[in-house]
Every structure is written in C-alpha cells, then in structure tokens.
Amino acid sequence: MNQVFPKILVISRSVWDDSKGTSSTLSNIFCNYNPEQLSCIYIETKKPNTKICNTFFQISEISLIKKIFKWNTKTGQEINSEYIESDSLAKMEASTMNYVRHHRSFFYTFLREILWAFNGWKSKELKAFVKKVNPDIIWADGSPLILMNRLSKYITKLTRKPYCVYEMDDVYTYKISNHNPFRYIYKYFLRKNVSQLITNSSQLFVISPKMKTEYDEIFNVNSKILTKGIDYSDKEFKPYKVVEPIKMVYMGQIIYDRLSVLQELGKIIDDINVNSKKIQLDIYTNNHIEEEIKSSISRKGNVKFNEPVPYDMVAKVIDEHDVVVYVESLNKQYEHVARLSFSTKITDYLASGKCVLAIGPKNIAPIEYLKNEDAAIVANNYDEMRRILVADNLPKLIEEYSMKGFYCGLKNHNKKDIDKMVVNILMDLNK
Question: Whole-prediction pTM value?
C-alpha cells in the first residue's frame, strides 16, 4: 500500500523529533508512509530524530544573518545521516535560536521577520532540493509566523502541485487579548499571508470542531478535523476502583499562567486533606519553576513536583494515577492562547482509559470539546473545581468518566478512521 502513496513534502517550523509531543502528531499522521516518499523542510537548527522521514532540508536562521554581510553564505542544506549536530557551529546556532524562540518577546519576532524579508532563504540549494524530491503534494503546517507562511507559499508556487494546509492555532482572527498596536499590525500582514495560503490550497485541515466552524465560514471551505489518532487495535477499557488517596497527575508545560491554576488546585487539596490524605497531585513539567514557588505549593506534602519523563514513559506514569489533569489558564489575558487549539495531550489522555479533569474557560476549544462530548469532568472556574473535589461521589464520578473519555476517543480519534480519511484525501489530490 505504501508504494502507491503520493510523495509528500512537509513544511514545518520545528525539527521532526518523535520524542517530542509537538512532532508526535506529524509522526502519527504519516507513520504508515514509506519514509522514502516523505521529505521535509524545516528551520530549527537541530538534527531530526525520526524513523518516519529520511530526507530533510534545514534553513539556518543564523546563516541568514551572516548572509547580510557575506552574500555567498549558504543558508540551507540537506540533512542526512552524516550530518553532525555536535560541531561548534551547530551548537552555537541551536543555542542562539533556542534563546530567541523561547524568549517570548514580540521584539524578537519582529527582528526575525525583517531577517526573512531579505529573502536570503530563497537559495539555489533550496530550489535544488525541491526539484530533487519532486513532490506530488505539499503539506504545509500552519504557523503564527509570517515567515513560515511565506516559505510555504514560495514552495507551493515553485512546485505548482496541490497542497494541504494544517492549522493548529488561531492564526487568523483578531480575537486576542493583547492590545499592543504593533501586534495588530503584525496580525494584519499575517492574516493576508494565511488567507492567500488557505484560499489557494486544495484541502484545509483544522485541529478542533470550534476551529472548523469559524474557518469554514471565514474561508468558505469544508475543512476536515484532524487530531492525533489513537491506535485502538490492542486497547480495551479496563474499569478500575478508586480508593483514597485519589492519585492525580498533571503532565505538560506550565506556561501561559497554567501554574496559577495548579497552585489553586493544590490549595484546595490542602484544605481537603486537613484530617487525612484524600487526594495527592503529581506535577511533571520541563518548565523552570522557582524553588520558592515549588516549596509554597508543595509545603504540606499533598503536591509533588517530579522530573519530566521521556515521551515514551508518559503512558506508564498516567497508568499509575486515577485522574489526569488538563489545565488552561483562567486568566482572561491568556484565553486567546488555546481558543481554537486542541492539545496533543488530550488524545493521549483519552486513550489511557483514565478520568480526565479539565480546568479552563468554557469558551475555548479543548474545554468546550470535552464538555460537549461529556468526556471529562470539567470545571470552568475555581468554585466549580472546589465543588467537584469535595463531593462525596468523586470516586464514582472518576470511575464513570474514565469510561466516557475512553469511548469518546474510540468514537472521534480512532487512528484507523483518521488514517483512512487522510489517505483518501491525499490520493484524490494526486489523481
């Protein structure tokens, strides 16, 4: 079956790394492909770590800076098994760009866009790579960066082949909480590029039902909802008895004020555990947290901070707990972050057969989805969170929603069904 699949060229900002959640969706979508029929262009200065795709082209943003002063500088290269990431140049590039990307400042975003506006990335090496891989279809990951949308448009015009766009965040609407006028100006130009890319695409994929509703109306298209798929071929729901202490776990980033929600959750658990230990919460995150804050949250021993575990260990950790906690900030300043999104963690949580406790505003896509599907215990504010946790029927509720979540995943995120949809679309585009 792999031999008849069209050749796909993926355009993605991040390096393809099967051990990272951000790339696991890409690997999940294309895991049944022949790696020889996949290629990828990306701009992160790291070596790929995947068995799904063998052929890569890396655009170096450090080299784009150098090219301003020395025009014959190469700005891109094909990455293969001989590429050595550990040399001094690669280390310097990775260190510099990691700082820029993780320092969430609009100033750096503005500088990056100016850098890309010089078009030094439009190299003969890039053109030669695209000609060499000769794709049948382009797969463009959506991005909140103008530069990535420009790159995708350039490749699609270069190849003149049908292409798909996969949007995973709200990159188009003005429904943002930050009223910085420069951000609105930036969004104006981003919207122009996004609109051009989507309007001329052959198929739009979106990450959530809420995004489908809005984007179908905006762009007059019939988008397809595409999430990470769950392989149910060897899964069956296993009921479990909940006894005290109820074991809860949070796994993920605590950026965008999510830590405040976990902090409040910890306070409620502290209140509940005054006479006996009824609930315990484990937190796994790779984000830095000040020791003083950690100590404040965990001082009574009901909340424990753990070292992050590799992605392939996540399922084991979840299996050792009764409840998986999913959190989005309740601060209005951050509501826009996940307004139309759908975290890859959600499908992992549903697949686990464990109860999901979802905390967040009711009008954002992931919370709205879990509520509408009745797939999780949902709290939209701190009062609801407290009422849920102090309820006498909490163990029974956990047992009930562990089953509801599992079968929601089976109904809506079965990998077999998702693979069939994607393959049928790609095959039709290649006719």
Answer: 0.92
